[in-house]
Write a structure and sequence with these properties.
CATH topology of the largest domain: Rossmann fold
Number of domains: 2
CATH architecture of the largest domain: 3-Layer(aba) Sandwich
Shape: globular
Distance between the termini: 66 Å
Number of helices: 21
Bound molecules: S-adenosylmethionine
Amino acid sequence: MRLGGRIQAAAEVLKDILERKTPATMALRDWGKAHRFAGSKDRSAIGNYVHDALRCKSSLAFRMDDDSPRSLALASAVFMGGRTVQELMDAFEGDEHAPTMLSNDEQAKLSGSINIEAAPDWIKADVPEWLWPAFETNFDEEALTEGKALTSRPPLDLRVNTIKAKRSEILKSLNVENIKPTEISPIGLRVEAALADARLPNVQIEEEYQTGAIEIQDEGSQIVSLLVDAKPGEKVLDYCAGGGGKSLALAADMENKGSVFGFDIDKRRLSPLYQRAQRAGASIIDVRQPPSESLKDLVGKMDRVLVDAPCTGVGTWRRKPDAKWRLSEDALVRRNNEQRSVLNSAKGFVRPGGLLFYVTCSMLAEENEAQVYEFLENHENFALLSAGEVWEEKFGVDAPKPWSADGCSLTLTPASTQTDGFFFAVMERQK
Ligand SMILES: C[S@@+](CC[C@H](N)C(=O)[O-])C[C@H]1O[C@@H](n2cnc3c(N)ncnc32)[C@H](O)[C@@H]1O
């Protein structure tokens, strides 16, 4: 496919997402199935135009004074993909698969005739208008920077499974270009986001992945797992284990000694953990399926309980940009209720003197600090501890610093720690 065909395809996919509300991954997959002639390079270029357009939907629409799929696809190719107006004109000329030729008005707008600096901050930051006050409250004068950082393409992060390998060994053996150690996580490797039409490497075909020496895991997720600071020999419950990304990281940090119990209310989400644990050689992982009666023997016995709570996923908007525009106030309220409920159910597994960890991949105080403080108010036998000491011990004093509203809990963000957004708090059960 040529440039014009790719941009036209991006406009069609965007129409499916924006007008028919199809999730982006499904819309891209459906387009691929209906256009079997398109190669993997075409698909990834189209995916880049679509995802960039969604990441920056409000600012691109402002620059084009139009939010149609066509305008967004054109603006994505120029403002995000680095194509010039002339390149588009040359590419569209005589190509029957390309969009219709650019009008004079489109040429002017794609050349920057509308100044984005005149836009309100929520548009410049590409944060939905109704959420902007929450961003301003949380990040104050850095709100714009934090919002904009969520519009960038995410890197590919790998976690070295220290049960099987050392980071230095993988760095030498893994056949992937431009890979480097992560700045904060001592067990991570990073390939920076690809530019323009380029794509990230497919590490799943590499031997190191197949044999369980590496996992794909955002550095932020590695960091919060390491902050749990689980020790060899301890008993740890991962109460919202999902596919088990954090269970696996916990088992490795515990040198595969002790027990990690992986539970999730959703059997389907939990199912990959059986195979993943096997591949990783994480033999201390004990998967417990719902209902929660399967956890009866663990009540009051856990040294550490991790609640990686269901949330809006604001911190992962770089990876799932369509979720940003789908999020509603109702959904936020629903997540808040689930968070309350999950914390209440998980607390009973912590032994006296044990620790309860509350983690989300959100950057909204309603889902983070507010949940923790409400829980503490209702449970006098739990006390908030500072996560700062463990941070320095694990990552040193020179590592980039996360946000902290209270000096105890931590919020990682793309702008502050160059990771996905994550919230982390630790509470001790005192009796
Ligand atoms: C953020 S995801 C977990 C991601 C996972 N820990 C990882 O690292 O890959 C939240 C999970 O909480 C689960 N969940 C929601 N309500 C729950 C409940 N009441 N009890 C246990 N798990 C619950 C969801 O099914 C979902 O898998």
